[in-house]
Specification:
421 residues, Enolase-like, domain 1, TIM Barrel, 2 domains, three-stranded antiparallel sheet, 13 helices, 40% helix, 18% strand
Amino acid sequence: MPVIQSLRALEILDSRGRPTVQATCALSDGATATVSVPSGRSTGTAEALELRDGDPRRYGGLGCRKAVENVNRVIAPALLDAQIADQPDLDERLLDLDDTPNKSRLGANAILAASLVFARAHARQRGVPLYRHFADLLGIEPKLPGLTINLFSGGKHAEGQVAIQDVLIAPQTATIADGLAMMYAIYQAAAVLIKEKYGMRALTADEGGLAPPALDDETLLADAVAAIERAGYRPGEDAKLALDVASSHFYRDGAYYLQGQILSGGEMVDLLLDWSRRYPLVSIEDGLAEEDWLHWSALCLRMEGTRVLGDDLLCTNPARIRRAIEMKAANALLLKVNQIGTLSEAAAAYRLARSDGWDVVISARSGETEDNWLADLAVGWAGDYIKVGSITQSERLAKYNRLLEIEEERTSFPHLTGIGS
């Protein structure tokens, strides 16, 4: 039974230069681990609270010293030398310490850091890869996910030159290695295309996607298809598209302000259905605003062959997932562990989504670090897809490179149990 010997936290910087939380945990047998937690920019209103200092003189109020202090002075003293039965036991202790509905006392960033670092330390104590440890938490077999990789970005990730947030490529390949090689070719073709079409060099957004000044949102879809073709691949066969609309960010007073138009909920549904018929889309994420429940149900009822994927709608929150199941408002979950705060709560959200036959996409955040635990989570929890970002920034590549390691381990060296855990 694991016994926590030490637990400490540190304020570090994420990929946007903003503070986040890193934690290090040592168990009594010497197993030690460090974890860094991500931070979102496009956030749903139902997400657990990410605790920030609020001091405008330091990082514009975004400092995380309060969250770090909560790990060091509240969480650690309560856990040191205690025998922890398992991950649910650890997470229940964390939730009892916070005792608020949205983690507002200690902060979801502090709580998640403690939850994740214990999991990694426990995996090392067991001598198993982190993805195997994650799989054992759910009692399932690991599986490599499909890829959805940012090509073009808009919305909050790119300062709003278009309203929709991301157009992603979903390589239809048998391996991670082949998918990344395909994406490289498509990305380079897209960089040439936007240079020719917009006179723009390859400037990137928060998650590494290209951010051309397209005249309207649909143009990004057409440009993505053109980039696939320029790279020598067949749209809809070799590579498909995924779309993150992030509609809550251009929704107000019951209407959607998109492409110079003011659309009703019904008109927004019609537009999304039209795009799904004319472009090779595997999924549409947050096609409607997070509280526009009735139109989510209308979209899900009418959509064929394209996942209706909930992010801001669901916030990895079992209560919202349960409502979506009852209303038939979605058929896929975008799972972000920091939206809910602990591994155990995220596991409950996962189980609930799977119980209704939903697909699950394991997702990073716009503010990431070089930590690669998300790749292990996507494999361990048998994600249908992983959504990390593009292929141009180290905090994204850390996850892709870890997937390559896991793929090699599982295909070429299945007898190995512990590399890179």
